[in-house]
Amino acid sequence: MYAVIKTGGKQYKVTAGEKLKVEQIPADIGQEISLNEVLAVGSGEQVKVGTPLVEGASVKAVVVAHGRHDKVKIFKMRRRKHYQKRQGHRQNFTQIQIQSIDA
């Protein structure tokens, strides 16, 4: 069984037992969270798509870790104008493990 969830402005296809990194969620490590924005639930050939959300569906997950992604380097330059700008950015993330999918 799988589900398509929405969190942090992004959509993820998840199955039970899977680990994934999502945008930062304000929760403690080891805390169980419930993701209620389920867009679709599928099992084999059967797929239930919500309009826009599936009624009564939720995904239970446990927070495994918090961290920061690798640095993304931003470099802007205008040729012949003596303009250069360097920036870096590290995005925060939360790693979760999917426990169960309730349809």
User: What's the Cα radius of gyration?
Assistant: 18 Å
Low-confidence stretches: none
Helix content: under 10%
H-E order: EEEEEEEEEE
- Give the neighbour order of strands across the main sheet: 2-1-5-6
- The number of distinct helices, counting runs of at least 4 residues, comes to 0
Total beta strand runs = 10
Number of domains: 1
Computed structural class: mainly beta
Between the first and last Cα atoms, what is the distance in angstroms?
10 Å
Q: Strand portion, in percent? A: over 45%
Overall pLDDT score: 96
Spatial shape:
elongated
Largest sheet: 4 strands, antiparallel
Organism: Limnobacter litoralis
Region (Disordered): 83-103
Protein name: Large ribosomal subunit protein bL21
Biased composition (Polar residues): 90-103
Give a topology summary.
Layout: E1 2-7, E2 10-15, E3 19-23, E4 32-35, E5 38-43, E6 46-49, E7 58-68, E8 72-78, E9 83-89, E10 92-102
Antiparallel strand pairs: 1-2, 1-5, 3-10, 4-7, 5-6, 7-10, 8-9
Function: This protein binds to 23S rRNA in the presence of protein L20.
Region (Disordered): 83-103
Protein name: Large ribosomal subunit protein bL21
Summarize the structure.
The chain is mainly β. The chain has no helices and ten strands. The chain has one domain.
Can you walk through the features of this model?
This protein has about 100 residues and is an all-beta fold. The protein has one domain (about 1-100). Helix content is about 0%, strand content about 65%. The protein contains no helices and 10 strands. The chain has strands at about 1-5, 10-15, 20-25, 30-35, 40-45, 45-50, 60-70, 70-80, 85-90, 90-100. The strands form 3 sheets. The chain has a 4-stranded antiparallel beta sheet with strand order 2-1-5-6, with no helix packed on it. Strands 3-10-7-4 form a 4-stranded antiparallel beta sheet, with no helix packed on it. Strands 8-9 form a two-stranded antiparallel ribbon. A hairpin with a 2-residue loop joins strand 5 (about 40-45) and strand 6. This is Large ribosomal subunit protein bL21. Pfam families: Ribosomal_L21p. Keywords: Ribonucleoprotein, Ribosomal protein, RNA-binding, rRNA-binding. Belongs to the bacterial ribosomal protein bL21 family. Part of the 50S ribosomal subunit. Contacts protein L20.
